[in-house]
Design goal:
This protein is α+β, with helices and mostly antiparallel strands. Helix content is 46%, strand content 13%. A hairpin with a 7-residue loop joins strand 1 and strand 2 (123-130). The mean pLDDT is 86.
């Protein structure tokens, strides 16, 4: 009888441990999802830039904005589906579509494309979004938002940043 009781206690303890591990896995998966989405969105704009080198050379993709300015809408230039785009209007259309994707995929999603100060046609692509784990007023800004060249963009509390360097 004691052996059965001990076995039941061990099974109950193991079940609770497994449930805790499952709960932690769900939590970490939910926290990782925006990072994965940010990576895909950075790849999206880098592919768009690669396909419009003339727009890149004309600085059509430069968006050295902090979070607040980056959330402002970019107007659709009205080309692409029925009319041809110039390199400049295609860059504007790409930024408009990227911004729409950012806002749809991420909470408070925004993006910046910062040209390198030292390397021609090198860019830092920044994907920014609101993160509940950083929304506490005492929480420091995301360290990824304070690295150069983003330090000049003034990080905002509660905003998480994903950055990647890119050369079309």
């Amino acid at each position: 009888m004691i052996e059965i009781l001990v076995t039941m206690v061990l099974i109950a303890g193991s079940s609770l441990a497994l449930a805790g591990m499952q709960l932690a896995a769900v939590k970490y998966n939910k926290e990782a999802a925006p990072h994965s989405e940010a990576t895909l969105l950075a790849i999206e704009i880098s592919d768009r830039m690669r396909s419009n080198i003339a727009g890149v050379k004309a600085s059509g993709y430069n968006r050295s904005y902090g979070y607040t300015a980056a959330t402002a809408d970019v107007a659709d230039p009205g080309c692409g589906s029925t009319t041809d785009c110039t390199a400049a209007t295609l860059a504007t259309l790409d930024i408009h579509n990227w911004q729409t994707s950012l806002k749809t995929a991420l909470p408070g999603g925004a993006g910046a494309i910062v040209p390198s100060a030292t390397t021609t046609y090198a860019y830092t692509i920044v994907v920014m979004w609101q993160d509940k784990s950083l929304s506490d007023s005492a929480a420091p800004p995301d360290p990824a938002c304070t690295k150069p060249p983003l330090a000049a963009l003034v990080p905002v509390a509660g905003v998480r940043c994903f950055t990647t360097t890119f050369m079309p």
